[in-house]
Design brief:
Layout (H helix, E strand, L loop, with lengths): L9 H10 L1 E8 L5 E13 L4 E7 L4 E6 L3 E10 L4 H12 L4 H6 L1
Antiparallel strand pairs: 1-2, 1-5, 2-3, 3-4
Length: about 110
């Protein structure tokens, strides 16, 4: 969670997910190529080696995973996707095969 090291605040990401607020990310891939993406964040995924933002990427027209240690800038936009978050998360879960922890516990 150290923005000075290229890590965006996970709290900011969670707030955007909850508020269904779009974000503009400046992202660097493993080859250090930088792109700016407008995304609809749907979840934060914790792995042993990294933390990733799961989001609908408007540039690519699909779901993408962004390692938080490669997000060099993150700005909340005054654009919202109100009422779409649950549907996007459901589609993301179906497409990625990630388990829905709420359904796993409730089921």
């Amino acid at each position: 969670d150290d923005p000075a090291k290229g890590c965006v605040s996970k709290a900011m990401l969670r707030e955007a997910i909850t508020a269904e607020r779009k974000l503009e990310l400046t992202y660097r891939d493993p080859q250090d190529r930088e792109t700016v993406r407008k995304v609809r964040p749907v979840g934060v995924v914790y792995h042993l080696e990294c933390v990733m933002l799961a989001a609908w990427c408007e540039l690519r027209g699909g779901f993408r995973h962004f390692r938080t240690d490669r997000i060099w800038a993150c700005e909340p936009l005054e654009e919202y996707f109100t009422g779409e978050g649950a549907t996007l998360r459901k589609l993301w879960l179906q497409q990625t095969g990630f388990l829905d922890p709420v359904a796993s516990v409730a089921g």
